[in-house]
Amino acid sequence: MRQVKCINLGLIDYKQAWDYQEKLFAEIVSIKIGNRNLSPENVIQTPNYFLFCEHPHVYTLGKSGDTQNLLINEKQLEEKNATFYKINRGGDITYHGPGQIVGYPILDLDNFFTDIHKYLRFLEEMVILTLAEYGIEAGRSNGETGVWLDAGIPHKARKICALGVRASRWVTMHGFAFNINTDLNYFGNIIPCGITDKAVTSLEKELGIKVDEEEVKQKLKKHFANLFECQFESPII
Asked: What is the pLDDT of residue 211?
């Protein structure tokens, strides 16, 4: 079975988590470059990671995003105790904050499959299967990455999980943001993912109760392991 190291970073500043991702990403890429000069029997196995974390209030804009989708200025960001970063993932603008499960798989897809489209669909499926365990039917919206409820129904469609990734040499970083007990008011300061005609929701809002985030993480890990045909090593942190 493929091995994945699961690391729970807890509540962590966005930039600190981003730097940590970059460090792991660079280490994997370095191993892959070094393997080119090795005989098959001496090739070093690249590691795979799955980082769980939660961020203080922050807005991040992907490389293809539009800054006009951030609807507040620098002073207003400070008043809301929020920060803003332009980052190197795909997608537009999104929000991260307390009560949200953020997952960053740092995988060498050469250990799994070399197909970014399939990778994104598997991450979505992981969340869809997790929501099904709470009695919520979720799915996809044509042409829009992420996990949605009532995607095909005008004025009812709402996103519960956003995705945005980067991949180079088949190594991934960034990942997903799953709204669990999230303060959805913070999404009012942006045009989430640049989409103007759909709302945002959370598991708490849909169920009407606070949700055990650790329980959700365990369900996500279970479905990830099944989909990617891997097993998690004991948590390091």
From this structure: 98
Q: Which of 229, 91, 109, 214 is nearest to 164 (CA)?
A: 91
| CA angle in degrees (0–180, nearest 5) for 88-65-172 | 30
Going along the chain from its start, the domains and CATH numbers come out as 2-233 (3.30.930.10)
- Closest by CA to 18, choosing from 142, 173, 145, is 173
Q: φ, ψ for residue 201 (rounded to 5)?
A: -140, 180
Give the Cα separation of 52 and 190 in Å (integer): 24
Q: What is the mean pLDDT of the chain?
A: 92
Q: How far apart are CA 200 and CA 160, in angstroms?
A: 6
Q: Catalytic residue at 6?
A: no
Q: Are 162 and 191 in contact (CB under 8 A)?
A: no
pLDDT in tens, 163-181: 999 999 999 999 999 999 9
Burial class (CB in 10 A: 0-12, 13-18, 19+), 67: exposed
Q: Which pair of structure tokens corresponds to residue 221? A: 């890990």
Say if residues 93 and 65 touch (Cβ distance below 8 Å). Answer: yes
Would you say residue 235 has pLDDT above 80?
Answer: no
Annotated active-site residue in 6, 53, 161, 193:
193
Q: pLDDT grade, residue 237 (50/70/90)?
A: very low
